[in-house]
User: Fold this.
Amino acid sequence: MFETDFGSEVRNICAAYKFKVTKQEGTLWWHAHTSYMRATVYGALIIRPRIGRKYPFPKPYREVPIMIGEWWNANVMDVERIGMSTGGVPNIYDAYSINGLLGDLYPCSKKHTYKLKVTPGKTYLLRIINAALNSQHFFKIANHKFTVVAIDASYTEPYRTSIVVIAPGQTMDVLMETNKPMADYYMAARPHNSVAVAGPFSDDTITTGIVHYIGGPTKNSTAKMPILPALNDTATTHKFYTNLTGLTTSRFFVPVPRHPDEKMFITFGLGISVCGTPNGCINSPFRPMISFAASMNNHSFELPTSTSMLEAFANGVKGVYTEDFPDHPPLKFDYTKANLSSSLWMTEKSTRVKKVKFNSIVEIVLQNTALLTPENHPMHLHGFNFHVLAQGFGNYNSKKDMKKFNFFNPHERNTIAVPTGGWAVIRFRANNLGVWMMHCHLDVHMPLGLAMAFVVENGPTLSTRLPPPPADLPRC
Assistant:
């Protein structure tokens, strides 16, 4: 419960949520879903095994959340509002943070550095969450290696690595052994810059924390800094993601559904559209009345303003959305070639959904485009986990690339970082009734329209899926 003060009137606001967690263990997270408000309102959601059950790896000595975030010297909602009203993109962060602290490489932040005190000879489980709005990150700890054991609350085959790559919205559970000499070691996160137009990047955009060995030197000690990849090191990013596989011995492992009922080919990326603001986007990087936009299959998603999509679905309200989101883009072209004819840049604003039957198998080829610039897009699907069958660079070629599909042990997750200038193929079972968004987890692109929605029909009724709240909820 929290209080808000509206002049002389004080209101108590109370919200209680009860939900069921099934067939998931590991790390998820919660966050505000009003666009840029996510920059400041978020936290970890940790799901441990039931009493009597064990992790599928040696029990760690301690579990530690590591949350990567962003910091603005401004009101984040003003940042978004000004950026959108002028027809461009909002300003980027002023700094990054680890567990809310910026680290001592930023000015005036010497005393604001996260410190993890560790006992030598132990194994720690780091629950890493990328809560940043717009940046994929490289994460390292000097002289230490990790073993990835879970992603997005799904167990993985243990993967040994010296670096973690994590996109906005993703989580990563890794084991770290404290088997190094007694000293201080920096943990550091640097963005993977996959696009120049997103804003200026430099070597100074590194947030740090310190791993301190208990019993080691405490005065006048200099922490060791890890060697981080270059900002544009796409090869390291691709190697990391393609080495992740599912843990087939996990009690929650789900075999890949082999016969898709729906196949979709979705292109997505940046484009332009007619400006929808009163001032005509006077500072547009293109021309007056034209603004940045983002789209999927050339449709730039607009949220309804009168009735929510879920309410319209549950009550049969017509006119809120249309059920004609296309399975393919309107034109075929060289998707990964930049500087094509500007006639391909214009997008159509709409509120279209893809209707699928309950329990149907949906396969989607997610194809990045480079109409304005190539970029890595973390695509997030609400309401489902999906299998990642394959990913690669260039234009997806079904005859050649289907041979790369992993049907044995693909990893499951809810957010996939589609490679810069490349593609990814995902598959999921639509067994969750309702309206579910798929969108880019770069918040600079979500307001621009890089989203679509699925309507899952013909399943259990809403009354059986959503029982009334219990009577024992806390009262305000």
About this structure: Residues 1-10, 196-203, 463-467 have pLDDT under 50 and may be disordered. Residues 383 and 414 are 8 Å apart (CA to CA).
